[in-house]
Amino acid sequence: MLKRYLLAPGPTPVPPEALLAMAMPIIHHRSPDFLPVLDSAKKGLQWLYQTKNDVLIICSTGTGGMVGSVNNFFSPGDKALVINAGNFGERWTKICKAYNLSVEEIKIDWGYSVKPEEVEKALKKDPSIKGVFVQASETSTGVYHDIKAIAGIVKKYENTILVVDAISALVAHDLRMDEWGIDVLIGGSQKGLMLPPGLAFIGVSEKAWTFAEKSTAPKFYFNFKAERKKLKDNQTNFTSPVTLIIGLNESLKLLQAEGLENAFRRHEKLAHATREAVRALGLEMFTKESPSCSVTAINAPAGIDGQEIYKNLRVKYGITAAGGQGQAKGRIFRIAHLGYAGTFDVITAIAGVEMVLKGMGHPVKLGTGVAVAQELLIV
Question: Domain spanning 5-10+259-377 has what CATH number?
């Protein structure tokens, strides 16, 4: 028997409280039984998003939330500024082009974060840009972008909105939607919210809703105005993913019991311990600046394929982490510390990396990284 450990940046482990809740008999999504369930989830998401505005719940993966955030607020020909700093920045470009937006990119070398002044320079040069698209945590590179600073710039432009993919950043990072002026904030169930894949969450500012009134892009399933109207009655526009929303309530209860600030501190502590433990092994971070608290991206040692490290962790020791994506494939491996994660998830991950590297012939003194992680994670 090989015991399994899930340490990937999505899907992440699901706490037993949510699993048990989702095992209850199904209820009908249009019945009175479901109304308080969705009402509770709606309020919990507003708490998490730190917003008084609606947070829509869509039955889709996070990418569905990204798609809906393009076709609901923009029209063909609108100008979009995309921060392209990794695999998911590239996805923003592809989605915008699929809906015939005119895309300008700020291209950032993988492993680096965007300088907010570059966004400001682009907007000053062309104030007709309608949307700025960015990741909070670029999962493919382990980089966190300065959303607070970028929001402070974009909100000065009344004809421009900021659209943030926070799919792997929510819960791990403090994202103050209302206070900072984030216009569209996208989340996904299978990351920090500790659920199976299948839900996307979209927080929308009043400024963004004025853009929705003018959007002429085609929309049917991802119709946010229709979703907003239904949400007022504690319903979703189409069939509600009842079981997932029941689980969502349980995950939100766990987070509320922990407290937002404590959740942010926990993720920061786990991320710091992971990075320092890896450095103690003589490995280098792929992330050169502004590391994410969601996932740590690590350069594979010279002569070793990062995909083989990822594969050996899973096949030999039952640890599912992540390999590299796009141009980083084979160069790196990634360890997540996101959602239902704690001290011994990090220690397990570091111990597994040590054993895999030693088994692949890389000179590693077993226990070196684990000792560093233990020191940093003592309560």
Answer: 3.90.1150.10
Contact in structure between 103 and 80 (CB atoms under 8 Å): yes
Domain 16-257: which CATH class? Answer: alpha beta
> Which phi and psi angles does 161 have, rounded to 5°?
-120, 155
| Torsion of Cα atoms, 60 then 61 then 65 then 67, to 10° | -90
Q: How many H-runs (helices) and E-runs (strands) does the chain carry? A: 14, 14
Give the β-pairing of 332-336 and 184-188: unpaired
Distance CA 54, CA 56 (A): 6
Secondary structure (3-state) at 22? helix
Query: In sequence order, what E strands does the chain have?
Result: 5-6, 55-59, 79-84, 102-107, 129-135, 137-138, 143-144, 161-165, 184-188, 199-204, 295-299, 319-320, 322-323, 332-336
pLDDT tens-digit readout, 335-378: 999 999 999 999 999 999 999 999 999 999 999 999 999 999 99
- In this chain, the answer to whether the domains covering 5-10+259-377 and 16-257 adopt an identical fold is no
**311, HSE (Cβ side, Cα atoms, 13 Å):** 8
Q: Which two tokens stand for residue 190?
A: 């299978």
Closest CA to 337 of 240, 278, 289, 268: 268
Claim: this prediction has a pTM higher than 0.90? yes
Query: DSSP characters for 216-269?
Result: -S--SSS-HHHHHHHHTTT--SS---HHHHHHHHHHHHHHHHH-HHHHHHHHHH
Q: What are the extents of the domains in the chain? A: 5-10+259-377, 16-257
3-state secondary structure of 59: strand
Q: What pLDDT is attached to residue 195?
A: 98
